[in-house]
Amino acid sequence: MKRRKLDPAAATANFAKGVDDRFQAATPLRGLLNKVFPDHWSFLLGEIALFSFIVLLLSGVFLTLFFDPTMKEVAYHGSYLGLRGTEMSGAYESALNLSFEVRGGLFMRQMHHWAALLFMASIVVHMARVFFTGAFRKPREVNWVIGVVLFLLGFFAGFTGYSLPDDGLSGTGLRIASAIMLSLPVIGTWLSAAIFGGEYPGELIIGRFYIAHVLLIPGILLALISVHLGIVFKQKHTQWPGPLRTNENVVGERMFPRYAMKQGGFFMAVAGVIALMAGLFQINPIWLFGPYRAAEVSSASQPDWYVMFMDGLVRLMPNWQIYFGDYSLPPLFWPAVVGLGALFTLPMLYPWLEARKLKDTRTHHLLQRPRDNPERVGIGMMALTFFIIATISGGNDVIADKFHISLNAMTWAGRIGLLILPPIAYYMSVRICLGLQQHDREVLAHGVETGIIKRLPNGQFVEVHQPLGPVDDHGHPIPLEYAGWVVPKKMNKLGALAPAVKGFFYPVEKPADIPVSPAPISSGEREEISSKS
Amino acid sequence: MSTAHHGGTGTPVDVNDPKLTRFDIVKEGLRRDDIEIVTYESQFQGANSKAEKRVVRNISLLFIISGLGALAFVVFYIIWPWRYELGNNRSDYFTPILGGTLGVSLFALGIGILAWAKKLLPHELSIQQRHGDPSSDEERLITGQTMMYVADELGVQRRPLLKGAIAIGVAPLGLAVGAPLVGGLIQNPHKDKRPIMYHTGFDKEANGGKPVRLTREDGSPIRPEDVSTGGQLTVYPGIPGGATNKYADSPTLLIHLRSDDAATARAAADSDKNGRNKGSMWGNYVAYSKICTHAGCPASLYEQQTNRLLCPCHQSQFLITDNAQPVFGPATRRLPMLPLSVDDEGFFVATSDFKDTVGPDFWERP
Fold first, then answer.
1. CA distances (Å), origin B184, targets A182, A193, A288, A497, B179
2. Closest CA to B281 of B270, B271, B289, B273
3. Could you read off the pLDDT of B235-290 as tens digits, one per residue?
4. B98–A502 CB contact, under 8 Å
5. Chain center to CA of A218
6. What residues of A are in contact with residue B290 (Cβ under 8 Å)?
7. B33 contacts in chain A (CB < 8 Å)
8. What residue ranges are annotated as transmembrane (chain A) (predicted)?
9. What gap in Å lies between CA B297 and CA A315, rounded to an integer?
10. Does the beta carbon of B56 lie under 8 angstroms from any beta carbon of chain A?
11. Which of A121, A462, A508, B221 has the least C-beta neighbours within 10 A?
């Protein structure tokens, strides 16, 4: 029998034909390959969150293979001598075994924890980018809301996650969570009893948190992240204003190959950084905390950083209890329930509030430089300042201890700072934005300062300005319109200096000739500038 | 397929023309997708330039480093002693080695791919039209009418019996789905005759009417002389499992006050407004619940000089010599006091349960 020769090219073509016959894939696939993405470093902050989430899913699946979410008391017999013979919950024992008896288990646990911290951090930075550049404006309000929900879900994913090992520190966090539930008016005790299955701590909570942490929350996260990305894809990414860029187009590069390669490379780099941190920096050494005991806690009990703002608000809250006859509302209710609720609902509403204030119903695909909307920057800085003070106050005992400051003074500084500093931040950032706007306008009107001082015949000294555009008959620049994009403010931005020579350790190309005069100027009289003068 | 597609501007080309290069065909696709390539230029002057070769060498080096790192990861993963042992030994370096090798491998691969994309691929600037226009009024009208027609087809408006049947007949199914979830979780916190919310392990009634001893974590009872002057001890109810998390509200701090402080404390306790703390001290000894009335953390940092008890979670401070009233921080309520006595054998007992409710505050707390 004669063997038929396999022609790879023909086989591939046949396969592709078969796929297109069945799925009509050719046209949409071409559209995907050709899709143009605008490029700017700040658009990659959200990617870090996405990549950390992928690392979280992968490392998390590994951890579930060894973790046992039971609260049955067992005696520890593992290889960590410090706890041998100690009574502890099965969850804590399996978390210890995961760290000590599983080859590479500690590495995976630390990778999971660092990825979670990075996930939340990159979400915050990404949200700041979206906020300050106005990327949340119509038509992207819904995606902004989804982003806020993603932060909230990440918050709960993190809390349920670090509660699972049932160590001394996480048990304290659980206790506070139960107190927060108890603080709710009317339903408090019922809610706590429902979630803990009776009196705190009960024997169910770790199992319930486990299913929430490995199935419910990540399931919703995954679904919402898909919607988030789908909307970005459908609405096409925003872009900065600039040459060729309009509200109706996208200027950048096609998704394949260059853009996709950059994404892939960036994913590897993010995963690499997480792996380095997981190997080199210890995180959550649960064996030092011991099993959870209701009577034991140490000072410097801090939650993960993204929960610290809430802990800080709880610390700063004065002890104001409101009484209604036989009933009362504990002060814990305000920072932990109302505060958390407000911190999530107000940002969600912001896109509509701003549009209403500015009577803005247009569609925006071009970003705004922060300085071009000073009030927004002010509000954002106000919120960030509030968040940062609350977060710092979440660790005020550590600061008091390390810097030998009175703890009460730290609390009072936080209380006063929380009220006074945000308005100051608002005022300062609005002023800075206005100043930056002013400077942009100045350069557009008068040109770039050259640093050349000229003496006029009457003895007056003037600085020579390089106009950015055409000049009138007297040699004065005709003021240019602000285009919403960077205004060059240094002579080397106009080509007054030779371009940098390529090569890191030694030059791979010849240095370019030094230009005799800077950027070409159209016509009319102009000041002669020489780089050698 | 030679006719132009949606949105394409410019002149279409015949893609079957054998004279076309592959890039020409790509450009025809871009035209149909309404994309214009404005600049597209190689980053190097001429193919195989010195600069290009150098970049290729560097990228290859990065890929090789990545492979070596991954290989090192696997080798160390297999051969390095990994089991935890006490003291400084080689197993301490297992996790750092894993992180270092894997991190370097992934990072080098990432930088390599990035360098490939950024340095080797041609620089391009493309413009794609957004086509973000909303649907035309006509389209909106058609879709709206279609949806209304769907409602017409169902004819619920015309058939009021169906409407009623849905409301009465089907709606309970939603409740049936929700009921097990809610019903299974709901627990009445007040259902016991003596709700555990208001009682701790020191409750005499639960111990057959016998006063409960104060014990250490290991269950051993405590004599007054076991606590030195100015000292303090965490005590638990002397019942089975009294020191476990089952009695999470029971941990108590037994403090042996100096005699002058004790006098102050006794005066404060005896002149207590609602009289609950009256006569609860035994000698110079006083016992307060360790569970903070703010958020339930153990208030465990006792400052001997000032007789203040600090909760490390939110820094509430309680003045022990004044009925453990909160003097700073977010706590509103004093720590509940445990009435002390000494039994016939000379061990500490609690003459009754705490007089106030232990633990964080809630709406209906008496």
1. 20, 11, 37, 75, 8
2. B270
3. 999 998 888 888 899 999 999 999 999 999 999 998 888 888 888 899 999 999 99
4. no
5. 18
6. 295
7. 30-31, 34-35
8. 41-67, 113-132, 144-164, 176-197, 209-233, 264-283, 332-353, 374-392, 412-434
9. 13
10. no
11. A462
Contact B108 A327 (CB under 8 A): no
CB contact at 8 A, A379 and A128: no
CA dist A288 and A82 (Å) reads 9
C-alpha span between B161 and B153 (Å, rounded): 16
Residue A167's DSSP bridge partners are A291
β-strand partners of A461:
A455
Whether residue B7 is predicted with pLDDT greater than 70 in this model: the reply is: no
| Beta bridge mates, B319 | B308, B325
Restricting to A residues 189-228, those with a Cβ less than 8 Å away from any Cβ of B are 189-190, 192-195, 197-201
Closest CA to B259 of B286, B221, B235: B286
Instruction: In whole angstroms, give the CA distance from residue B95 to residue A278.
Output: 8
Cis peptide before B18 (omega within 30 of 0): no
* Exposed e or buried b per residue across B333-348, where buried means at least 16 C-beta atoms within 10 angstroms of its C-beta: bbbbbbbbbbeeeebb
**What 3-state class would DSSP assign to A5?**
coil
B304 in A contact zone (CB under 8 Å)? no
Taking the CA of residue B236 and the nearest CA in chain A, the distance in Å comes to 9
Q: Touching check for B223 and chain A: CB below 8 Å?
A: no
Provide the edge-to-edge strand list for the sheet that holds B252-256.
B285-289, B252-256, B232-237, B212-215, B348-350, B340-342
pLDDT digits (tens, 9 = 90+) for B21-80: 999 999 999 999 999 999 998 888 877 888 899 999 999 999 999 999 999 999 999 999
The reply to whether B181 touches chain A by the CB within 8 Å rule is: no
Name the B residues in 117-136 with CB < 8 Å from any A CB: 117-118, 121, 124-130, 132
Which secondary-structure segment (H or E) carries A453? strand A448-455
Residues B64, B57 contacting (CB under 8 angstroms): no
Contact between residue A219 and residue A225 where contact means Cβ atoms under 8 Å apart: no
Q: What is the mean pLDDT of residues A399-420?
A: 95
Query: If you measure CA to CA, which chain B residue comes closest to A81?
Result: B86
Whole-angstrom Cα distance, residue A91 to residue A68?
5
Mutate to test the interface with B, among A71, A276, A327, A508 (most CBs of B within 10 A): A276
- Beta strand B301-303 with B35-41 is unpaired
Determine the distance in angstroms separating the CA of B286 from the nearest CA of chain A, rounded to an integer: 18
The shortest C-alpha distance from A268 to chain B (Å) reads 4
How does pLDDT run across B179-206, given as a tens digit for each residue?
Answer: 988 888 988 888 876 676 788 899 888 8
Residues A486, A434: contact at Cβ < 8 Å? no
Secondary structure class of B282 (helix, strand, coil):
strand
| Domain extent listing, chain A | 448-533
CA dihedral of A232, A234, A235, A237, whole degrees rounded to 10:
50
What Å distances lie between residue B31 and A94, B10, B289, CA to CA? 60, 7, 77
How high is the pLDDT of residue A517?
54
Residues of chain B with Cβ-Cβ distance to A251 below 8 Å are 125-127
What CA–CA distance (Å, rounded) separates A92 from A138?
48
When CB atoms are compared, the residue of B118, B326, B359 closest to A319 is B326
pTM score, whole prediction: 0.92
**Chain A residues with CB inside 8 Å of B360's CB?**
178-179, 182-183, 330, 332
Closest CB to A298: pick one of B290, B312, B333: B312
Sole residue written with tokens 């959870």: A292
Any chain B CB within 8 A of the CB of A65? no
CB-based contact, A32 to chain B, within 8 Å = no
